[in-house]
């Protein structure tokens, strides 16, 4: 089918499926981006959200890949750590973070997992002119995305990474992995007090709901601190608005989202795309 004739919702008997697996999935933006992108470049594939409850995931998650035309999947909260259990092989980032957000079914039927949140986040920072090398970083949230970002910041040369989570055991496990895998100069369990850090990352869902509290005491933010949020559904989250009022540099979650796109495409076998090229293809505005 010619590219000009393809509709983002065209589905045929040969269409390949790439589910977005999560719970909930109402906030995911991947179907809008990738289905538009597949149509623009003439790929007969669709991305569909699948809401799988955590109790069902150990049974349903692996079974999805028995479907012949499911060639890969994108994984979101809360399943990034759990899906590691049924992978046959994984990248170094997955092993260090203990989480996975990208799965491809290889020709022999085995599953390989990778982790793109962190790489996408750091790429977005650098594209915005922020170099994490030498920065003192605070990552609030030690789940899948927080773990990925902590690993990537360490690999990018951050001076230190503090991990804060209401689940201190989870924060301690992540800080321990950062140290044991040698990806970070200094990693430690931290509070959510942002004073003394160069970069603050909100890697929690706080901000998705109007009733959510702020993830950190913003009055402790120093002007000039880089404040980033991973939430993609809202560009200017309450945290980012409060940080901007205090003279901080802010960084939106959608930048991580678009920077991950060429990584997913390459994993799924569609090479040669860049984030800048994808922005032009889909009319994505900075």
TrEMBL record:
Alphabetized UniProt keyword annotations: Amino-acid biosynthesis, Aromatic amino acid biosynthesis, Oxidoreductase
- Show the CDD domains listed in the entry: NAD_bind_Shikimate_DH (cd01065)
Q: Where is the Shikimate dehydrogenase substrate binding N-terminal domain?
A: 20-103
Pathway membership:
Metabolic intermediate biosynthesis; chorismate biosynthesis; chorismate from D-erythrose 4-phosphate and phosphoenolpyruvate: step 4/7
A single MF term (Gene Ontology): NADP binding
Kindly list any coiled-coil regions of this protein: none
Any GO BP: chorismate biosynthetic process
What cellular component terms from Gene Ontology apply here?
cytosol
Name the Pfam families on file: Shikimate_dh_N (PF08501)
UniProt keyword annotation of Heme present: no
Q: What name does the UniProt record give this protein?
A: Shikimate dehydrogenase
UniProt source species = Aromatoleum tolulyticum
């Amino acid at each position: 089918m010619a590219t000009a004739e393809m509709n983002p919702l065209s589905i045929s008997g040969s269409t390949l499926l790439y589910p977005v697996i999560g719970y909930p999935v109402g906030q995911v933006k991947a179907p809008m981006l990738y289905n538009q992108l597949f149509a623009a470049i003439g790929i007969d594939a669709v991305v569909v959200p699948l809401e799988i409850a955590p109790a069902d995931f150990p049974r349903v998650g692996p079974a999805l890949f028995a479907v012949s035309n499911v060639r890969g999947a994108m994984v979101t909260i809360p399943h990034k750590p759990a899906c590691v259990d049924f992978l046959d092989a994984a990248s170094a980032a997955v092993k260090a973070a203990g989480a996975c957000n990208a799965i491809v079914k290889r020709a022999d039927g085995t599953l390989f997992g990778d982790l793109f949140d962190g790489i996408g986040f750091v790429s977005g920072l650098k594209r915005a002119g922020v170099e994490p090398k030498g920065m003192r970083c605070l990552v609030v949230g030690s789940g899948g995305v927080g773990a990925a970002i902590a690993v990537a910041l360490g690999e990018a040369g951050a001076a230190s990474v503090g991990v804060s989570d209401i689940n201190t055991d989870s924060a301690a496990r992540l800080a321990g992995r950062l140290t044991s895998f040698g990806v970070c100069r200094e990693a430690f369990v931290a509070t959510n007090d942002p004073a003394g850090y160069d970069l603050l990352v909100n890697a929690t869902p706080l901000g998705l709901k109007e009733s959510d509290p702020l993830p950190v005491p913003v009055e402790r933010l120093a002007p000039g601190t880089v404040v980033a949020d991973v939430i993609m559904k809202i560009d200017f989250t309450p945290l980012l608005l409060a940080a901007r009022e205090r003279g901080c540099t802010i960084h939106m979650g959608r930048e991580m989202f678009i920077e991950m796109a060429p990584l997913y495409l390459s994993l799924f076998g569609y090479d040669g795309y860049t984030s800048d090229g994808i922005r032009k293809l889909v009319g994505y505005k900075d």
